[in-house]
Amino acid sequence: MRNYLLFILGLCLLASCREGEIIETNSTTVEHGELDGAFYQGTIQSGNIPIVGAEINVYQSGELIGTTQSDTEGHYTTIDLNLKVGPEVTFEVLFDGYNQKVRRVESNQQVYNDLNLKLYSQSENLLSSELAFPGDTTLVKIYGTFTDENGQGIQGATCRSVWDIIEVVPGVQWTSNGGYERTDENGYFEMLVEQNKNIYFQSHLYAMDCTTILTEGDVLPGLPSSILWNDFMDLGILNQSTEILEKEDIESDIFKSEIQGRFLDCEGSPFTGGSIEIVIYTAFTGWSQNPFRRNKRTRLFPKRYESLQYIG
Q1: d(Cα 163, Cα 230) in Å, to the nearest integer?
Q2: Average pLDDT of the chain?
Q3: Hey, CA dihedral for 133, 135, 139, 142, is it positive or negative?
Q4: Using CB atoms within 10 A of its CB, is residue 144 exposed (0-12), middle (13-18) or buried (19+)?
Q5: pLDDT of 268 strictly over 70
Q6: Distance between CA atoms of 70 and 74, rounded to whole angstroms?
Q7: What's the average model confidence in pLDDT over 251-267?
Q8: What's the mean pLDDT in 32-57?
Q9: Ramachandran bin of 196, using left for φ above 0, alpha for ψ from -120 to 50, beta for the remaining angles
Q10: Which CATH superfamily is domain 19-121 in?
Q11: I want to staple 134 with a disulfide (CB 3.0 to 4.6 A). Which of 72, 94, 102, 103 is the partner?
Q12: Is the domain 125-257 a CATH 1.25.40.10 member?
């Protein structure tokens, strides 16, 4: 009888410890014992700027579980969503003027902090399109890590996937499905693509004075040569997660540029602690969208580099 009493007492102590665990969030404090399933939180940002009011759709097991929004600090939480531990979870982030963001993650544990997601302006992606149903469990992940000759991760490289290319105006205008992503501080990227479709992939790093091609490839079939359609790897038809391999011997110095300067206040004295924004316009030569004009044209696209710190 004493053994049974000790066993019951032990269970009570474990339960009380579980209820005492605290999960801190930006807007609320949650007791761990209140959670029945998986819990996620993080921030939605563009560069280092928080995105307020982003719509976050959360899917699991092929179903939309619910929707939440980022708060005034760009923070979000799934505390009000009924997510299970075990099946993968897919996050879809939507915000006006930005590309759709989709990320599929595991749910093997109960609490996931710092699932931070970055959005990119639609002006960066000339092949803008969206996955119709990001919660589709048959979508295939492509991923990779790009490094320079010294093994350092290449941050900020654009990664594009393309499939279902349709010629809208013969010889002039095309549309396609696909995705857009950029490598993180470790040079890593991932995105979801449709299964049983012929997938093409392109990765470039745009710098101030040159463009570096990170993956070997060719011009997309049937399309004119341009920076938009060049250097796409033919991945073929994918039915499982696939790693993208970079080209060999990517030099470490060809995509680095340095700017120096001195900042003064209105009285001519140096000052510190601020930030600057640099906007660089890169030229793109493409085909005119006017069906009556078949000549090429040059357009300028802004590339923003925000929150660069400086000292006086």
Answers
A1: 14
A2: 78
A3: positive
A4: buried
A5: yes
A6: 5
A7: 64
A8: 89
A9: left
A10: Immunoglobulins (2.60.40.10)
A11: 102
A12: no
